[in-house]
Amino acid sequence: MFSDLLFRLRSLFRRNTVEAELDAELRAHLEKEIEKYVAAGMPRSEAARRARLALGGLEQIKEHCRDARGISFLETLTYDVRHGIRVLRKSPGFAAVAVLTLALGIGANAAIFSVVQGVLLAPLPYREPDRLVTVWLNNFRLKSPTDLSYRDFLDWERAAPPFEKMSAYAWRSFDLSSPGNPEHLEGREISSNFLSTLGVGLALGREFSAEEDRNGGAPVAIISNGLWRDRFGGNAAALGQSIVLDGVETTLVGVLHPGFRFGTDYADVYIPIGQRKLVDANDRTVHDVMCVARLKPGVSLSQADAEMNAIQENIDRLNPETEQGLGAKILPAKEPLVGDVRGTLLLLLGAVGVVLLIACANVANLLLARSAARAREFSIRAALGAGRGRIVRQLVTESVLLSVLGGVLGLAAAKWGLNTALATLAADLPRSDNIHVNASVLFFALGVSIVVGILFGLAPALRSSRANLQPSLKEGGRGSAGGQHRTQSGLVIVQVALTLVLLAGAGLLFRTVQHLWKADLGFASQHILTFQVGLSPSATKTGAGVRAAYQQLLDGIRRIPGVQGAEITTEVPMTHQVNSIPFWVDSHRPASVAEAPRTLGFITGPDFLQVMRIPLIRGRFITQQDTINSPLVAVIDSELARTYFPGKDPIGRTITFPQVGDYRIIGVVGHVQHWQVGFSSPFMQNQSYVSIYQVQDRWMTTIDTWTWIVVRTPLDASIVLTEIRKAVYGAASDQTVYHAQTMAEIVSESMSPQRFPLILLGSFATLALFLASIGIYGVISYSVTQRVHEIGIRMALGAERRDVFRMIVGQGLSLAFAGLAIGVTTALILTRLLSSFSHLLYGVGAGDPATLVTVSAVLIGVAILACYLPARRATRVDPMIALRFE
Question: Which residue numbers in the chain have pLDDT < 70?
């Protein structure tokens, strides 16, 4: 069998040698037969004739021998490819247009697939990622999975969960003051087995030990590879040295591999989570910890979910005041990373598939038009004995060749387009660093090219193979083009319908962004600068020190020329930072804190309303007199007042925040859009404000890591920020300014769920419109060529040029209107997919009449332009020349 395979391969790659050996063998057989007949007494000429008759036709024998090798299909394919290349070289204009059209369609598909593959399909870069899960608390009242408290994690860990390993992590930021210049760094608190749970190692050093991962353990840290190279020059001797984090000397025990991250954000510093302060570690109402675990072999998600809910149910019984109403929720580790973008990407993949269908229809139209010119060629080949299957195979090979060439060019376009898109849209995509034109994308593009080549080439090939020999072989005979014209017209109608669907989707997203920009945010976003300050470690040792440090900073910033106001706050609107806390009003305490409603808690200063331009509806806002030594007061927003005090005056009523105390309501302010416009969540719908100067000392010493300063100024942000940095560094040289952004930039970023699909879907719709216009132009232009004789007769019988112009334009518009009728119906159905994603549409419905009318008008306008040139050409037909055309 192996020798047979070698012979077949030799026949394929050393064809001339094998053919020469076959000729020599046949000549030897022939000579042997001749000698036999000569020995019997025949003359040599007669012996040669009898020997040839006995052996049969030599060429037929050769064909049988070639068939026996089993490579005839490959040989035929090679011939078809060579012939196809020669045919395309004879029509460079047609080949260029077809290849470019396909390159646009295939390139767009390859680009989007590379995004889908990198974000959705590629496995997480950890050991056995299918066994990695994230574990959440499930709040049954809010119907939403949430973070857990560190105490919850410890209880889970002790209860023998269905996991091989289980670890906790939490977001944390640090101020690094040594070695080198002070710098603010993003980091994580992690449990000692965090990296081993993920199944990743370290470039240098070790993980934290169990002794280090507890309160009172030695201060240790693991740092990123980039920070190691930046601060220690990549020197392995850095292990064991100290770095100063938040004023604490911390020993460096490990360095991560380049590019390591878990989650969507990059971290430079990792410390043991067990060393957090007892006030954070023991409070079950502080939900800021996330959990990642590795399933035991053979344990399914549903089994683990059931076991974890049983564990949480037992914890509920032991802690009824805080845990009642909570369950557990287990999700694959990739799920939280992908989030809402999964549906958007699949929607875009479908949209770009529509673009490819339009491109295929265009090239199919080109092939149909070209087949009319090659009808005589096909008839001659059929007359010489070529079967219908042979002609179809040759034509499909030509179309696949076109498609593969388009795919190669499309891949180059996809790589360029992808790099350009990621430069501007990477922040809108999770796992964007994982998006590349890799082997998977190459195979995808190759597969699409072959399938597309067969798809758009098969119908023209089947039609061309049914050539009518007699009329086609007549000199000048053209046959009937009626059926072909109907096919081409049908393809154009489909193109117009699909283009309208894409335009409608892009139009709805465009209208959404318009509505978002005009929406009432509840505050004035212009002329506001936001930033955070890493306070000097010496100032964060006591609550009084933190208050004094912030007051000193605010006084310095307010003195800067051009600054109209400045204040501190724990929440900046339109950001993803959410301080969601439980509450109840008056004496309506729920059975469990977990069952209590939640409010977005703003801890801020007296000038916050003035800086943000938030309206005061009733009562008063907090003042300088509301201090740690005065009665606790709170301000609520209009939504909380409407929900919990309907038709009543909330002023003077009590709102209670567990673990903090009872607050007297002194005012009502307007509702602020926090996460993004149109996004509603039970965590952010109710909003409340308390004075930062009434926060207890035990919380005040930790509040600086999530406190912002907002500044109102009409001046250029970069100029003001320079002066702000001087004020901050002047107060203490080891303080840092970070996360500086204007409020306008924050609002713009909040629109990323709509902006990302709008840009891509708008690009696809524009491309589809371009291809559809080419399709209409091609069909009308071909129709004019076919009807030259008819037009000549009409003009000879007295038809005016404007009549001919209207006739040709009317033909194109009839195709456009037919496509519009189908497209509008299809759009009304498919655009509902957009409305099924609650974050995509705002202020506009899926069947918005204004959008459908506008995109229909655009398509009609493009159709008129596409028909204009062929119509002008038709009006210039000379009747005398046209009548001699036949």
Answer: 1-19, 21-23, 55-80, 140-143, 278-282, 323, 339-340, 371-391, 425-428, 459-485, 576-578, 678-684, 786-787, 834-839, 877-886
Q: Which two tokens stand for residue 67?
A: 């068939």
Query: How far is the C-alpha of 158 from the C-alpha of 205, rounded, in Å?
Result: 28
pTM of the model: 0.78
Residue 270, phi then psi, degrees to nearest 5: -130, 130
Q: CA dihedral defined by 84, 86, 88, 93, rounded to 10 degrees?
A: 180
| Phi and psi, residue 332, nearest 5° | -55, 145
C-beta separation of 498 from 818 below 8 A: no
Classify residue 428 by its DSSP letter: G
DSSP designation for 298: T
Cα(557)–Cα(563) distance, integer angstroms: 7
Q: Which two tokens stand for residue 125?
A: 């870069």
Residue 425: CB atoms within 10 A of its CB come to: 16
Length of the chain: 886
pLDDT value of position 709: 94
3-state helix, strand, coil in the chain (%, to 5): 55, 15, 30
In whole angstroms, give the CA distance from residue 530 to residue 513: 24
Give 843's contacts (C-beta < 8 A, 6+ positions apart).
511, 512, 515, 516, 519, 678
In DSSP terms, which residues pair with 566 in a beta bridge? 711
The whole-number pLDDT of residue 436 equals 82
Q: Which residues contact 841 (CB under 8 A, 6 or more apart)?
A: 508, 509, 512, 834, 835
Residue spans of beta strands (DSSP E) within 211-247: 220-223, 242-245
Residue with tokens 């009543």: 648
Cβ atoms of 575 and 536 within 8 Å: the answer is: no
| Contact (Cβ atoms closer than 8 angstroms) between residue 142 and residue 683 | yes
User: Which of 106, 545, 126 lies closest to 337 in space, CA to CA?
Assistant: 126
Look up residue 615 and give its DSSP letter. Answer: P
Q: Which two tokens stand for residue 325?
A: 């109403």
846-876: string of b/e by CB count within 10 Å (b at 16+)? bbbeebbebbbebbeebbeebbbebbebbbe
Angle at 138 between CA 133 and CA 140, to 5 degrees: 155
Is beta strand 220-223 parallel, antiparallel or unpaired with respect to 661-669?
unpaired
185 forms bridges with which residues in the sheet? 174
- The amino acid present at 855, given as its one-letter code, is V
